[in-house]
Amino acid sequence: MLEPYNLLKFVHLVSITVWLGGLYSLNVVNMRFARTRQPEVVEALLSQGNFIALVIFTPASLLTLISGTILVQTMGLSFRTLWVAWGLGGVLVTFLIGIGLIRPAAVQMAKESASLEPSEERLKALRRRMRWYGALNLLVLLSIVWVSVAKPG
CA triplet 111, 60, 27: central angle to 5 degrees? Predict the structure, then answer.
């Protein structure tokens, strides 16, 4: 019989796996197609990235946050415990990176790519920015996984 705690932990681990794996995969696809000079490909890629963010990343991240919060309460831990606080703070940081950095850069890239005379320099700068934001987001998520496994403090 599956205990409620184990089921909750399973949901938590699967949701972070979907979130992290999906983000990594999307970053790889973005880098693969980043140099295309076909505006329709860039537009489709950005559109699908937005869709994936809304339909996969948002539910997975919320499920990670909710299940993690319930796990902390179930285990009788304090939210001030270093690894718990790190996890909560990291989730907040990834939300801010996505909403505050990645999404605006993606919108700018879509506009520039669809313009009558897209600036290759501008597109190159936006692609570079998107790569850095994606890498930063991945590093934050990986740090959450590491601190959850190592449980320092």
Answer: 45
